[in-house]
Specification:
Elements (H helix, E strand, L loop, with lengths): L1 E5 L2 E6 L12 E3 L7 H5 L7 E4 L3 H11 L1 E11 L4 E7 L2 E3 L2 E3 L6 H13 L5 E15 L2 E13 L14 E8 L4 H5 L3 H16 L2
Parallel strand pairs: 1-9, 2-4, 3-4, 5-10
Antiparallel strand pairs: 1-2, 5-8, 6-7, 6-11, 9-10
Length: 205
Amino acid sequence: MITLHYNQLALHIGNPKELSSFSGNQIYEGIPSDATPASILSLFSNPASLLRTENSSDLLGTLKVLFLPLQAAGGVVVDPANNLLFIHRFGKWDLPKGKMENDEEPLETAVREIQEETGVCDLKNQGKLSTSWHIYPLGDSWVLKETHWFLFSSGQHNTLKPQTEESIDQAKWFAVADLTEPLANTYENIRMVIQQALVRLASFH
């Protein structure tokens, strides 16, 4: 199943078996052949709408034609004291991430973006977490952003250096035991990635 985010709304895309655990949600049957970005946006009628399809990959291909595709990568970073690394940008807590440059692999992008946006350089890859999808306006176009997420550990305790030229005004560690502040003021797809990271971290103990 694929979850496509727009602002704080989510559209779950999958086959009938994958969506069988949902009940009482608005269900849409596939994407019409004359679909437009505006008609796709109209499907986000509530926080858990469902788009039923027999082939999620084919449907993603359709979305990549309707929207401008963009590849990005980022990461969840945990330190030895069990704190998670966040950035603050545009009034919300977020995770360090950014667009993939030419010839970069997702993992390379994630490491580079974390280093650039926070100053944390001691990063050890603990594995791929997930891929998130969200759409947003860019000028006269709409972007379909595919972000690859990784889990990293770091022993670095140097002063964090938020990348102010990228509108980041804070970089901060938050204790895993109390993520109330960042989770209360972030994006829905970021909450999803954090929850996946917490499950993975719990399995390490």
